[in-house]
Amino acid sequence: MTSVSETLSNTQSELERLVGDLRGLLANKELDNIPQIRQLRERLDDGIENVRDSAVRAAQEAAAQARDAARAADRYAHDEPWRVATAALAAGALVGFLLARR
Known about the structure:
The chain is mostly helical.
């Protein structure tokens, strides 16, 4: 199973590879005098910056949600230790029962 950060990293590297290929194509010196190519380069740079910003915001939001969930679980475990212990015991008993049936 891949983590969110690995998926984000893979996506970012694929995007950067694609952008590099596009820039290589657009960097052809023969095309420098064409205004449409210059505009396309500018739009491409703006789009890349927007995508990077969005990816960073999404990763930060996911990390914040994970931290909040961990804090809530920690608070619950401290506020209700017997419920957590009972749930752990029940899960262990269920796993033991299932393994014993094999």
